[in-house]
Write a structure and sequence with these properties.
With 249 residues, the protein is of the alpha/beta class. 39% of the residues lie in helices and 20% in strands.
């Protein structure tokens, strides 16, 4: 009963549309799926695997949310809307995590080992995002809608794109229990990459302008200026390479 009260309070803290306790109890499929999961998880730990799987199979019919009973889920876990969410068997979800509809926490190997993601405290995963493999999403990080994340994400990071790229830092996703809903304030990694390409083009133009053709030879003025331009070009090239490698800008 204490867990149900905490779940209802969490719904009020994470969803501004929550208007009454009765509405949360009866109209929030994310909470219903979590309650089904807790029953099934207890039965799974008793080695009654078929019964646990069948309970979650029924839960999927009712809620549109598929959670494997073997997954590990912490407190104050909140699923908003929920339709189409898939949470795999070896997924680990720590406290205060929020998922939106269409999220997949999927595996990437046939081997019966840790093959699904770990979401640390306070992580927020946007609608339609796919987190694949035994990777870790660091605490208080957020993943933008429809991103596909294939590598570990450091704590307090913002990730967007396909494949997911770290494009910024977050201070905290939860303040006084309430979630940060500024989902529209996301960096644009493609625009950042283009900006660095344009900067490299400016550096090339500067080098060309620095070469003065004379009647019999080419002379380069200001050797130090040339070195500075080359160093700046290398810096911009390194930034673009990081972006292409998925490390972010």
């Amino acid at each position: 009963m204490l867990g149900i009260r905490e779940d209802i309070q969490t719904a009020f803290e994470r969803d501004p549309a929550a208007c009454s306790v009765w509405t949360v109890l009866t109209c929030y499929p994310g909470l219903h799926a979590i309650w089904f999961y807790r029953v099934a998880n207890g039965i799974w730990k008793m080695k009654l695997h078929w019964i646990a799987r069948f309970i979650m199979h029924l839960a999927r019919w009712v809620t549109g949310i598929e959670i494997h009973p073997g997954a590990t889920i912490g407190r104050r876990f909140f699923i908003d809307h929920g339709m189409g969410i898939v949470i795999g068997e070896t997924t680990e979800i720590q406290d205060d995590v929020t998922l939106y509809h269409g999220v997949t926490l999927g595996g990437t190997t046939w081997v019966a080992e840790k093959r699904h993601p770990t979401l640390e405290k306070g992580v927020v995963i946007g609608a339609g995002a796919k987190i694949l493999g035994p990777i870790t999403i660091g605490e208080q990080s957020r993943v933008g809608s429809n991103s596909v994340v294939l590598k570990d994400v450091p704590a307090h990071s913002t990730v967007v794109g396909i494949p997911g790229t770290v494009v910024g830092k977050t201070d905290t996703m939860l303040e006084d229990g309430k979630i940060n809903l500024d989902h529209h304030l996301m960096p644009n990694p493609v625009a950042e990459a283009i900006k660095h390409v344009l900067q490299m083009m400016d550096d090339v133009n500067a080098r060309v302008d620095n070469i003065q053709t004379t009647t019999d030879k080419c002379s380069i003025k200001e050797p130090q200026q040339e070195k500075d331009i080359v160093a700046d070009m290398k810096k911009e090239h390194d930034k673009i390479q990081k972006f292409l490698d998925g490390e972010g800008i």
